[in-house]
Amino acid sequence: MKVKNHLFPIFVIVFFTGACNTFQSNTAQFDLVFLDTLEIPFAGDIHAGAYANQTGLIYNYRSGEYLKFDSLGNVLAKNTVPSEGENSLFYVNGLKITDNGNILAKSIRGEIGLLDEQLNLLKKTNMPFQSGSLDLKRNQNAIEIYKDELLLFHPGRDNKNPYNLGYYRDNYLLEKLNPNTGKAVPFLKLSPESKYQENLHFIPPTALISVLGNSLYFVFNKEPLISKYNLENNGAWQNSVSLDSEGFVEIKGQEIPIGNDGSVLAEGEITNLFALKNGFAVVYLDGILNGSPQRSKLLGKQLKVYNYETGWSNPIELPLNILFLLNFADEGQSFYALINPSTLPKGIQKAKVLKLKLQPKQ
After folding, report:
1. Which of 117, 158, 202, 281 would disulfide-bridge 101, Cβ 3.0–4.6 Å?
2. Could you tell me if 269 and 299 are in contact, meaning their C-beta atoms sit under 8 angstroms apart?
3. The pLDDT value given to residue 294
4. Which of 115, 117, 52 has its CA nearest to residue 89?
5. Which residues of the chain have pLDDT under 70?
6. How open is the CA angle 240-243-248, to the nearest 5 degrees?
7. Which helix (H) or strand (E) holds 169?
8. How many other C-beta atoms are found inside a 10 Å radius of the C-beta of residue 151?
9. pTM
């Protein structure tokens, strides 16, 4: 498809006509630039996706179909992997395209599948213990690679319950898995600045991780605090950065776990995390309090970029119809966002992906 490079008012992008939005950092302003819309033949919902090495990947749990496409939306490969049986993968909610083009697929049952470039299942490794957290959220960035080992969020070692008081304070955050031997060891400790250090009950979170070089970034979806760890130094904690969003709604910790008392209509949530050369980017929803003037407003995702030299960008409002980002890239490079299939007209047997980039404002 021919690339269209335009700047438009941000609200128009919801209707697929293109958009931009401006934010300020300490040094510059940027525009979110709409480049193109890719139309990919794919039926049904999409539960996970990824983009790397000039190729994208989308997956539907109900059909078990995986489809790989290039930067123009051309189909490169597709295949179906059943959800039950010997050569199967159950509900996959995490995908990772490796440097050699193979694909890691993490299921909610603790299966880690290795798919080749034609999307055939080459190997399946099972975690040595069952996860204590049943997480049905789609597209969780919770599996990474470091020096031929897999890092993944899989709580519940030694039959401990991650829903218990102080679990993440008293136990490791991740598992480090050797895919050849199937042996896993606990890895990474909680940031000293995390609210989960408190002796209080919280709504159970899930986690997102992202690795670049020797740096690992970790965030709980329900806590606006992003932590950096040094993988070269056995995962030593380096620092934590607050999201700096006054509108991020959290259910406060409780001595007695009663959950939401009705004051929160929608919790704030971090839905994407991306490691960058000198920082990271997050996509999040602020949430809504009961009685807030914003209670009738549709919740939209926002993108923020953190640079260790210049600090946070202001939030960039993303189109309401975006389900999740497939990837994110530094300024000037294109990245891809999946349009929620449920927002498309009925009967359309296509997935739609927006191609975007950040550009300095003149």
Report:
1. 117
2. no
3. 67
4. 115
5. 1-29, 294-298, 362
6. 135
7. helix 167-170
8. 23
9. 0.91
